[in-house]
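Service request form, structural biology core

Requester: graduate student, group of Dr. S.
Request type: structure prediction, single chain
Budget code: on file
Notes: please return the result as structure tokens.

Sequence provided:
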Amino acid sequence: MNAEAKAAARKAGFARRKAAHRQTDPAPALAALRAVLADHQGAILSGYMAIRTEIDPLPVMADWARTAPVAVPVILGKGQPLSFHRWTPEAEMIDGPFGARIPARPDPLVPEVLIVPLVAFSRSGARLGYGGGFYDRTLEGLRARGRVLAIGLAYAAQEDPDLPVDPVDQPLDLIVTEQGVIRP
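Core staff response, request fulfilled:
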């Protein structure tokens, strides 16, 4: 796919997300996420530490951590898949790459369900991230090992029906927004 088309889609996605972040209550999206996760009790969940104008999944992660393991992604290096390390609400966190916080003490886990941040999405399950390909490599590797559920968490305004997609882009299984759940 044309890198220029993705760059343009990313720029537009950031603008839509920023506007939505100022105007939209994320509570309905978090409620919908909790409802989706109810079918996966006990699974190892990966969330993320929100940066910029991403919807913050911490309330859902904190609830999950009461009964099952929660991990957050750690960037190991350019061109590599993500690693996931145990997170609890009490975990000591340090600054990681790209401004995301990571656990101070590494404790690797392999997630079964992932809450995935994004810049833009399409109803077909396509996801546009920040451009590093970290989640694409990660999901490809996890899916090669077995069943994994990738849930995009976004504002409805981040939808882009004309999202450019490359063959290496890994689709989302579900997208959760403040308007409900999209099942591609």
